[in-house]
Amino acid sequence: VNSGGTPTIGLAVGTLASLLFLLTKTFERTLAVGAFFIVFNYGLAFLAYFGLRKREPGLDRPYRARHPLTGTVALAGAVVFLVAAVTTDTTNSLIALGVVAAAWPIFLIIQSTGKLA
């Protein structure tokens, strides 16, 4: 993460992956894989919401939410989307999951070097 808060390496890798998809004329695939990534990320954020609520129940919140209703509805929507994506668009979903699986060890290596904020 640079001084401005941008994940420089992640941005570069994402840009290169997008360029490769565009150069191979697979825009629909790029869109499908990207949608999967976005909803997968939202799902992780909703899980983090529950984790934070459990670990820090007395923490001041900048916004009030009807816990756990709003988080549950949002997480359920993400799960339904991801299950539907995997069942109806298996190829693109597996590509997205493969990229996530391949990126995880890279993240761990970078994290162990102390280069991440």
Please outline what is shown here.
With 117 residues, the chain is mainly α.
Number of strands: 0
Order of helices and strands: HHHH
Low-confidence stretches: none
The radius of gyration over CA amounts to: 17 Å
What is the residue-mean pLDDT, rounded to a whole number? Answer: 87
Largest sheet at a glance?
none
Strand content: under 5%
Mass-distribution shape: globular
The helix tally amounts to 4
- Helicity range: over 70%
What's the layout of helices and strands?
Elements: H1 8-23, H2 27-55, H3 69-88, H4 90-112
Could you characterize the architecture of this molecule?
The protein is an all-alpha fold and 117 residues long. The chain is 75% helix and 0% strand. The longest helix has 29 residues, at 27-55. It is globular and about 50 Å long. The model has no long low-confidence stretch (mean pLDDT 87).
Structural key phrases:
mainly alpha
